Amino acid sequence: MRGLFWTLLLVLLALGSAALAALFRQDPGTVLIQFQGWQLETSLLFGLLAVGLFALALWLLLRLWFAPVRIARKLALQQQRRLEREGYLALQEGDWQRAEKFLSKAGKRNQIHYLAAARSAFLQQRDEQAQQYLALVDDSRRYRFSTDLARAEALVQQGRYAEAVDLLNQLRRKRPGHPQILKLLLEAHQQQGNYRAIQDISRTLRKRGILDAGQLEQIEKSLLTADLYAAESTEALQQAWHSLDRKQRQNPALLLAWAQKAIDFGLHEEAEKALKKAIDQHYDPQLIQAWGRLRGPHLSRIIQQAEQWLKDHPEDPDLLQALGRLCLSAQLWGKARDYLEAALARKPQPETWRLLGELAEAWHADDVALACYRNALLLEAGEPLRTLPPWPSQPPETSQESARLAHDQHGMPQLEANDEA
Question: What integer pLDDT is reported at residue 416 of this predicted model?
Answer without folding.
Answer: 44
